[in-house]
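User: quick one
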Amino acid sequence: MVSTLFRHATLLLVIAALTGCSGVQSPLDPAGREAEWIAQLFVWMAIGVLVIWLGMIALALLAPHRRPFATARHQTLFIAGGGVVFPVLVLVALIGYGLSGLPGMLAPAAAGGLSLEVSGVQWWWRVRYFAPGLASVETANEIRLPVGTRVDIRLLSEDVIHSFWMPPVAGKLDMIPGRLNRLSVEPTRTGTFRGACAEFCGPSHARMNFTIIVMERGAFDAWLASESRPALDPRDPTAQRGRTAFVERGCGTCHTVRGTESIGRAGPDLTHVGSRHTMAAGTLPLRQDEIQRWITQTELLKPGAHMPAFAVLPDDVVAEIAAYLMQLK
Amino acid sequence: MKSDPEPLESAPPPRVQRGQAERLIRTWEAPRGWRYWSEVNNSEVGLWYIGATLLFLAFGGVLAVLMRIQLATPDNAFLSADLYNQIFTLHGSVMMVLFAVPIFEAVSVLLLPAMLGARDLPFPRLSAYGFWSFAIGGVFVCGSLFFNIAPRGGWFMYPPLTTSYDGGVGADVWLLGLSFIEVASIAAAVELIVGVLRCRPPGMRINLIPLYAWYILVVAGMILFAFPPLIAGDMLMELERELNWPFFDARRGGDPLLWQHLFWIFGHPEVYIVFLPSVALVAMMVPAFAQRPMAGYSWIVLAAVGTGFLSFGLWVHHMFTTGIPGISLALFSAASKVVAIPTAVQIFCFIATLWGARVVRTVPLLFVFGGFTTFVIGGLTGVMVALVPFNFQAHDTHFIVAHLHSVLIGGTVFPVLAGFYFYYPLATGKYLSDRLGRIAFWLIFVGFNVTFLPMHFTGMRGMVRRIYTYPENIGFDTLNLVSSAGAVFLFAGFATFFWDLLRPKKHAPYAQRNPWKAAGLEWLAEMPAKPWGVRSIPEIDSRYPLWDQANLVRDVDEGRFYLPDAEEGERETILTTVIDARPVQVLRLAGPTFVTVWAAVFTAGLFIFSTFDMWSEAAVSGVLALVTILVWLWTGTSLIPEKTEKSIGLGLTLPLYATDHQPVGWWAMFITMLGDFTGFIGLIFGYFFYWTSRPDFTAHPQGPGVFWPTLALTLALASWLLTMLARRANARNRGPVFQASVLGAGLAAIASSVAMIAGPVVTGLDPETHVYPAIVWVIVLWTAAHLAVGAIMHFYCSARRAAGRLTATYDIDIVCVTLYWHFVAVKVLIAAGVLAGFPVLS
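Assistant: Done. Structure below.
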């Protein structure tokens, strides 16, 4: 039995080693001040858990092989020591250390700087940027942040409860109808990551993700400035036909493309959709064929999606709309 | 009374013994043929109960396997999103509400009387009613999956997803089906508390009771305070779904967070409700393995009680990411960790018991050890997730899935499996297979760890819970495949266990008596066990009677102790006092009947028809349920015995009907009313929660007014005073005064009920417009319903007295009704104060 346990412990260590640098959605591969601190906390706690776990198993296995307690007093000391003194010491240390980081984590960013407002909607994210000297900019399903700047994000919900989570950057916070929650984050390295909705929010909860892009401050400012501009009229004739079809087929009833007559609010803002990494809240990579698939097979790709599938549209019209959207950079 | 009576010096002559045994058997044996199902005795009901919970365990387990198949590979199309959501919702709900809680009730119904040397629990028909309700409700909830109408909002059912955004009946199946089962759980809690407090053998003072009984007392108490808030919440949600009352709709002043509070005030204690009874089983097994008394009996009792109390102060740790203020986060974070201390105390007591003991490596011990290693890692990861900053990352990820399964499978399932191998001979007289047991153990143990250890890392790579699929190459692929492979072993292990349990054992030899050489009274049972429970009820003066009391088995078997006979052919057990277990009454127990089955069927009809909006059918079922329950009470409770007292041996004569030491009915009413009161407080909590959390709550100036609530209060207090007057008149045997006052009380109660409802009607409060009128209406309806039930009780007492079934001496009916009215008076006082007084103040 002991050897089996050792094998388990080794397995655990191997897995731990394997998960060191572990992907675009990993809290253990941090890119934000909060996530860094929590990852460090995790490593210490994980080591502690492993030591105490193995210790307890050893104690239980060895117990029958020890000599009986000499007196009842010894037995009481054993119970009090292991059951009260030891956990109290460990817990006091843990609470002291663990909660010491909490105030810093909850501290808001300095007033007057960049801030975001993100709303959860079944099953996508409405994102708004507020920067000094700039009108608010709306986009969707992609969060871009400047590295090294603390930013406040106001979290809202337009329907059910969602939870906004950028694992490499910071912990999650819920979006609750009728309530406003504030999350403050501080990215520490540039890169592209993946965020997710963490609260079960209906059939396509699994399809509610987003891209996180942490950029250098200069690049971020440039991007935000370009994002704030209205869409340019397409020059390519296919895309021009797509623009017309987009309006005629009613896409603009739900989607906004700033600078055009499409001003719908029910679905994501598509003004610069061509510059995003993914579409349909992280469901598909942004490619023309995927957009076509999305328009015609919406329900298949995202069960329960509120956008109806436009399967009746002729293929060439779908292709034109997709071409139009692709060039909205 | 002489202290510490001894058993008879010599055994009664064999002919007398045989005569006694025959009469006992005739009284206690179950009916044959189809009438078998009318049995209410704990040894049959307990077995059915266990069988049903195992069926639900198997069902929930298959659901788990389906989920693991779906998650084995990325972008898997094995299950649709909708089906996956139904399956994970049912998996959680079934495992918690249809397996983990009822398995403890089932095992306790079966074993507790034996552990206490009693012949049955005090309310056998209530146990049977609870079982049938549970079985019907459980089949209904599980069956919904086969019609694709199962609940799909998660076992936590967070609104508004489950209110405004879920058509269909799934949520109603959950709300009504599970509320119904929770009522059955509360019935079991009442039964078990009164059982532990009053059905102990003479001499088994409260400090001598088996640890199992202590745990049961704590857990049943927790059920009493944990389930009613959820039932109140269920009611609010069902009202929002059916009648559009906006309790959780933020646009009309509601707040989805109220549900989360009510749910987790239930949901957190729930974890300990399913965990502590399994520790209780371990506490019964460890001394048997070590062949010595448990180290630190009082430490364990204190730890269990402490855990029970603490568990009610931790619910917010399920809500750390809802955006609550930092100071609350820190407080609840620290409080959540404190619960590790009593848990550690219990573990160290067990280890101390095994310290230096010559331990036999049996299958139950193996399962206990497997549970220990699994539970400890779950407990330690629990300490991790209780730490707020880490919780921000871990919450709602597969790390939590790994944590909670370690706690529940380690803390509940492994000990229960150990319990099966340990106690199986008591239930059937046969052994389970040692070989199959070891195979099952290793399959489950290895399967569990392969499934759930990697899942910690799946979570720490960012995989959230409750997603039906994930894309490839973001770090989830390998770990999920490993977890799914582990699930195959787990499944095989449970299949082996079920095979061992169910395989025919007709030709297997009977187990030897007390095969583990344990010390508890339950091991007095012969193999196979006789239907009478114990041959004679012993006098106890030790925590480990079979080890410490010489010749106990012989003396019990030969009928040298109390109640060795059933002269009148009536099922009987001894009632003792709460603290020092002095015998005070012989309790006549109800025998087999179908009335409880029908009561359960009609109660189920009320809930099930309501699910499908078949209101007239539901109403008919409801009325039939009420009638059946009244018939059950009329024919089966507070019966006047044919003689006042009887001799139970050893020179002791006890009354057959006694009210001076609070009859068991009084205790049952008191305990039920505590639970009921907790549900009411849940609603009042809701009122003030809205007031503190929603600035527009008091913007609604017009309430139900002052006049009508005050009138209702006055009438209710009048009814209460008249009830007490009726009780006095009955005690002085003044029939006309009794009838006048009890009927007057009933009429006043109905008038009060009408006045209560008149408030919001007259002032025109429309519950659909805003949460304020809605919560007022709910409090009004809850209070009015309790007043109406109180009136039915008055009329029932009036009829009982008229029929000669309630007299000055035989007065349990009116005693219990008076107690009910004490609670009603307080509730109406609070309701009227809040509804009429609070708007004036604020």
